[in-house]
Write a structure and sequence with these properties.
The N and C termini lie far apart (72 Å). The chain is built from 14 helices and nine strands. It is an alpha/beta fold and 308 residues long. Strand 1 (15-19), helix 2 (25-34) and strand 2 (38-42) form a beta-alpha-beta unit. Strands 1, 2, 3, 4, 5, 6, 7, 8 and 9 form a nine-stranded mixed beta sheet that branches. It folds into two domains: 6-176, NAD(P)-binding Rossmann-like Domain (Rossmann fold, 3-Layer(aba) Sandwich); 183-297, Orthogonal Bundle (N-(1-d-carboxylethyl)-l-norvaline Dehydrogenase, domain 2), CATH 1.10.1040.
Length: 308
């Protein structure tokens, strides 16, 4: 009798659940499906779950229903409050998770909150991985994103090959929750400051009368370039502020950065300035636009695609 394929072995071994089918979650669920897992999905938008399931998978109406079928749950929601709702709210997964199950938390949160969540789940025998993610929607869809993880050996063993199915780089940063979220916050410090600096540079060039495409071409081929300049200023050039990552995400994430530093009285002057820039953009009505819309706070400039 021929041996079963790796995909068949995965399918027979494990169902896996993904909660949250936004820009990152849908791609992660698709990566798991390609790897041969039987993927159960849940989203507040039932149509999003049904659309995913139409191509293979199972749509569930609630996190609790998903937990009834899966011993590994991947949560890809926006923040700690949404994670709390996924686990402990109406129809939450926690009550349905069996002892020995694993909850993989991929949101950007306060590291202390993540530590506390690990302890809460341990009380009912549920394993936990602190596993924030980075890389954007395209890398999530291709299974090429980065995961910053921390958790027990038992949690990693329960995850099996799921982490590698979702990410090209899986960093193991400790044997208990906390360090995954700490490293993600450091990443968000840099990402937020780089976006704010990129917007400031492009705004100055526009104010001085330099063509936006010329600025972009020169900087992306010079030492001042950054991944964020190259990626986000392309959004500005195309006047496309569709939110792959919104202004309000950096209001939240840089807020977490500053809260973490404040607890140990550690100064972060660049982070504080960038946070104020995103706050200003949000208060001006751009909170749900792409984070590159932080450039809209600068006066006296005409952005590409704007009427004169």
């Amino acid at each position: 009798m021929p041996n079963s394929s790796p995909v068949d072995q995965v399918s027979q071994r494990q169902n896996i659940g993904v909660i949250g089918l936004g820009a990152m979650g849908r791609g992660m669920a698709a990566s798991l499906r390609r790897a041969g897992y039987q993927v159960h999905v849940c989203d507040v938008r039932l149509d999003a779950a049904q659309a995913f399931a139409a191509d293979g998978g199972v749509a569930c109406a609630s996190p609790a229903e998903l937990a009834e079928h899966c011993e590994v749950l991947v949560s890809v929601v926006v923040n700690a409050a949404q994670t709390e709702a996924v686990l402990f709210g109406a129809g939450g997964a926690a009550a349905a998770l069996r002892p020995g199950s694993l909850f993989i938390m991929c949101s950007t949160v306060d590291p202390n909150w993540s530590v506390a969540l690990e302890a809460r789940l341990a009380e009912q025998g549920v394993l936990y991985l602190d596993a924030p993610i980075s890389g954007g929607a395209a890398k999530a869809a291709s299974g090429q994103m980065t995961m910053m993880t921390a958790g027990s050996a038992a949690a990693y063993a329960k995850a099996g090959g799921a982490l590698d199915a979702m990410a090209a780089k899986v960093y193991k940063l400790g044997d208990r929750a906390g360090n995954g979220s700490k490293v993600k916050i450091i990443n968000q410090l840099l990402a937020g400051v780089h976006i704010a600096a990129a917007a400031e540079a492009m705004a100055l060039g526009l104010r001085e009368g330099v063509d936006a495409k010329a600025i972009y071409e020169v900087i992306t081929n010079s030492a001042g370039n950054s991944w964020m300049f190259e990626n986000r200023m392309a959004h500005v050039l195309s006047a496309d502020y569709t939110p792959l990552s919104a202004v309000d995400i950096f209001v939240k994430d840089l807020g977490l950065v500053l809260d973490t530093a404040r607890a140990s009285k550690f100064p972060l002057p660049l982070s504080a300035t960038a946070h104020q820039m995103f706050m200003q953009a949000s208060s001006a009505g751009h909170g749900r636009e792409d984070d590159s819309a932080v450039i809209k706070i600068f006066p006296g400039i005409t952005l590409p695609g704007a009427s004169s």
